[in-house]
Fold:
Amino acid sequence: MVSAPTRDIGGLDAGLYGYLYADMLEIIPDLMWPTSIQTYARMRHDPQLAAILAAYTLPIRRATWAVDPAGCRDEVVQLVADDLGLPILGADTGPSGARRRGVRWSEHVRLALLSLTYGFSPFERRYEIARDGRARLINLGERLPHTVRAIDLHRDGTLKSISQEHAVSTPIPADRLLWYAHEREGATWTGRSVLRPAYGAWLLKHEIWRVHATSIRRFGMGVPSVEAPPGATPAQVAESQRLASAMRAGDTAGVGLPPGFRLAITGMTGSVPDAMEFVRYLDQQMSKMALAGLLDLGDTRNGSRALGDSLLELFFLSLQAVADELAETATLGAVVPSVDLNWGDTEPAPRVVATDVGQRHEVNAEALDLLISSGAITPDAELEAYVRGAWRLPQRATPAPPQPPPAPVQARRRTARARSVRAAGSEDGHRQLTLIEADSGMDPDAIQAVWADALSGLLNDWADVSAAWREDLAEQIRDIVTGGDLAALASLVLDPGAAIQLLGAAMVAVAEQSAAQMVGEAASQGVTLDQPPVNEPHLLALAQALGGLLASNLASAGAREAIRRATADASGEDVAAAVTDHLAGLSDAWLREQLGGALSAAQSDGRFAVLDTAPEAEYASSEVLDVNTCKPCLDLDGTVFDSLAEAKAAYAPGGFIDCDGRLRCRGIVIALWN
Structure:
């Protein structure tokens, strides 16, 4: 036989949590129930707190409330849905007709949300017996918090009954109550108002309002003073006081003074506290306590769209938690009793749910069009129903016609982009592949690895070239400065031979590896190709031009620094050493960009070498390798070109020719053979 505890050992002190209920943890008398009801009733009319409550309650009220069958019998689910006036989740796609009697759920939710303001909101259930013998819930009558006179509890802290402020009122037993309590702890059935943390800020704010209004009235016209003449009698002094006190501000205000009396208007002197700034601070504290800081973004010093999105996301999560709490309370306090009355306490009961509190429809019309045109999703009746429901559009009058399958790749030209959203979990920071990219067999990680490995090796080997160039420049500068012919600094020259040879070898190697990858992509589509030779003369010519420019650029940088350092008393040795240190300390960002651009050109050349000899295919742009994609590249991404010549015109230089990032572009061309 199972042994288990069947009764409580501990409990709540009946003297504290009995008929004379009190929250002993509250230290402010005005916030102890029942006085707290009057305090919160005043606080809810503060403009800032009214906005916070509206921001909290309105999204919950407009949410989609429904009865979740949760595997229960259809008969049970239908009775609950009919009594509460709610649709059945997954079955009722449209609103029901207007209800003339029974529970009005929208009104009930509005009143239930008073639990956020006052901490609790009780309702009394009332049934009628239908002809079939079923008990039907016909009313959830609100028992507003300010009408509750006493809360009676059992020793274990559970609710026993409540009494209201009526002469003939009898206690309402707990088994007839639906009780919403926000953040109830233990036997504190009055809950905790969301306004409780704002009490201090609210109290100070309204005191400052009164003081500030008085100061404006007081000092807006200044303080009048009337000075009695020298040797004035007590009566004259009293008269001067009367004259000053009688003065009023106005368009026709004035004063007449006896001979010898003098009038002065004294304004405020010195600095005064900024009352309005402090009021704004108090308003922001009230917003923070409800996680509603987004209401103050326009009034704060700092703010951004990213910050607003973060605050909004957090706020939506808090709203969903409140809605879920209300739904669970309604299930236990309204649904379960109805099921128990009609079928007994062994019958499973459905649940009340709020499905889309504060839902954000990130899939806008443009994104939806791109998803459909790329073939990522297929338009059908279910998708149309979701879109119409999500944006509250009217239902289609006639059934939706059958949709044709997505157009083949050949028909998708420039107006049909093939993109997918960038995913935070994508490998190496690049976005997910589109359908066209996946069909092409491309491997962005392998393509990027060839380029990145070549660039890393090239930069490593380039260190020797740079060191030799710095030594050569130091020797030339030393001789020129020592000889005193500073004009000769304009003719500094470096030998680019080693750089050209190093860069040319790297570009040819990258082109050959890229050609092999292009052959592999064709093979993944069932097309067998022989790897052709790359255009080595063209690549070496590019290497020669770039190597010469890099040597010339370093020589110019050395000459400029030498001119700056060649003062009248500077020796050639000192200037040469300073120039060497300066050049050695330069960032490699510019060099990395130049060499990376050369390797991108080699990578593009190798891929086009294969496409030049391959059978005709469909050629599309891909910017998947670009982590930070500029707008021109983003607009072109996924475009299917009309010909190989058109594709080469856009991407032959290595990356998109109109890219805002210039040499940093990593766009490529992919091919699809049918």
Remarks:
- The two ends are 73 Å apart (CA to CA).
- Confidence is low (pLDDT under 50) at residues 14-21, 292-296, 303-307, 405-428.
- DSSP finds 19 helices and 13 strands in the chain.
- The first strand starts at residue 65 and ends at 68.
